[in-house]
Amino acid sequence: MLRHAQISRRVAAVAVSLVLAGGAAACGPKDGADKAGAGDKAGPAGAPQKGGTLTVLNNEPQEDFDPARLYTSGGGNVPSLVFRTLTTRNRESGAPGAKVVPDLATDLGKPNADATEWTYTLKDGLKYEDGSPITTADIKYGIERSFAAELSGGAPYLRDWLVGGDTYEGPYKDGKGLDSIVVPDTKTITFKLRKPQGDFPFVATQTQFAPVPKAKDTGVKYEEHPISSGPYKVVKNENDGEHLTLERNEHWDQKTDDERKAYPDLIDVRAGLDAAVINQRLTTGSGPDAAAITTDTNLGPAELAQIGDNKELAARVGTGHFGYINYLAFNPKVAPFDNPKVRQAVSHAINRTSVINAAGGSALAEPATTFLPEHEAFGHLAYDHFPAGKTGDPAKAKEVLKEAGYPDGLTITLTHSNAQNRQTSPEVATAVQQALAAAGITVKLEGLEGNAFNQRRWDAKNTPGFFLSRWGADWPSGGPFLAPIFDGRQIVTNGSNYNHAQLDDPAVNAEIDEIAKLTDTAAAAKRWGALDKKIGEQALDVPLFHPVYKRLVGKDVKNVVISDWTGVLDISQVAVK
Q1: Is the dihedral of CA 336, 341, 344, 346 positive or negative?
Q2: pLDDT at position 425, please?
Q3: Are 11 and 480 in contact (CB under 8 A)?
Q4: Which pTM does this prediction carry?
Q5: Domains and CATH numbers, the chain
Q6: pLDDT band for position 153 (50/70/90)?
Q7: What is the mean pLDDT of residues 562-567?
Q8: Which of 235, 285, 302, 399 lies 20 to 30 Å from 375, alpha-carbon distance?
Q9: Which DSSP string do the residues of 186-241 spell out, in sequence order?
Q10: Which residues lie below 8 Å from residue 18, measured CB to CB, with a gap of 6+?
Q11: If you average pLDDT over residues 573-577, what whole number do you get?
Q12: With left for phi above 0 and alpha for psi between -120 and 50, is residue 575 left, alpha or beta?
């Protein structure tokens, strides 16, 4: 699936930024009904109604508000209020929200026999904010401009997937288009791919698929006033997304959009706020803050403890779920981790209870024994090849360590980040250190600053032997989860490498290609789960936990929907009246 360093770099950057932002997404409870309930119960009762102003209080600015430079998940779904795409997420709570559904298109696309071509037809009656019709030529142009160097930053999949995409530089230099995007008429568009991609409908949710009328394109200034195809239009963008004001797009027609509800009349997005200030304002709920939400600020252990038995506040907490894994990574090219028995011993020794406590407690993290998250959409198949129980199995670890040739134990180094993010933090590293000590494994901790840590673990030539890592997928499928980490063709020696184990197994690579041909998501999911289980036998990593994210909403906010696709409160569903 993903082969170039640029692709891996962008995917990981987004995954990391989601967590560092306080958790724009998360993995959560196994019970789908519980997940849906958590979202549905947040906020006051009563049928949502149109009207009012929704305030968004965020820590991170909504930078680069240009569909070429954004991910659909960016900004807590704020972009999806302005930019419609060929397909989109199903806007429901829990597991049903992990499905892809049509948006501008009439269906999820029609593939050819081997899924190397995908054809879409636009719905009738689609219009921009100025009343002009949306055409497939606009979608083609919107994608083409995303290849321009000056508009870099968006999802990179099309650069790798489209025929000619790896050398195309956008339309600005010579006015040339991309021949692999064919537009025979104003309502039909076909994409020609370099190899089969059954997940193409998922990628068609990315904001690069938003239509951009060529006559209205202002290049790098387009973000100041992008032309809306969604229910809201930008009327103010100050300090590169620090203050964003959205008003209704009167030419948006609900009849063409089954997903967005567009209840508020106005949406006021204010960013650059301290996380503690955001949560305090949401808790107090004075004035406009009563009708406020956050899309990037999580509740921490101390704040959850303060909420405690306060039923009114507890009723305003929504829980987000997303495909994300925190794990211990091995580099088998570094001794003693070239010995599978050593890796197995570490797996048996790990105390997931202490790790979860270090990550914020059971309300904010759940144990994991598989690489794929415990979501049906990803193809999760339960397994635990090297059982450690809830608190580790030091006796079994010592037994396996003896088989590895270390009857008296051994000393190893664990590399981690010094950033206080509850993911790869010193606290988590210390919990691992203490668990392994009980098994006769002495762990020396090597803490690095955030950027230095990332550079080290992504450097194939200098990857540590043993370190904390994490991964999240851009859409709910096993492909973007397993391929970047275990596909040998994605090993990058001169850039950012995410195949930490540098696994290059022809059988694994071939199975990834075979699954990529499948357009039946259920069949693909089953195969991804089986592949995850097979790879897990090699003990190339130790799954630790899935983060769980909890967000507070204002007391007047209704209709809180949080899906398993993004884990973010879906702003397109929120009402304040």
Answers
A1: negative
A2: 81
A3: yes
A4: 0.89
A5: 324-547 (3.10.105.10)
A6: confident
A7: 88
A8: 302
A9: TTEEEEEBSS--TTHHHHTTSGGGS---GGG--GGGGGGSPPP-SSEEEEEEETTT
A10: 24, 25, 73, 322, 324, 472
A11: 95
A12: beta
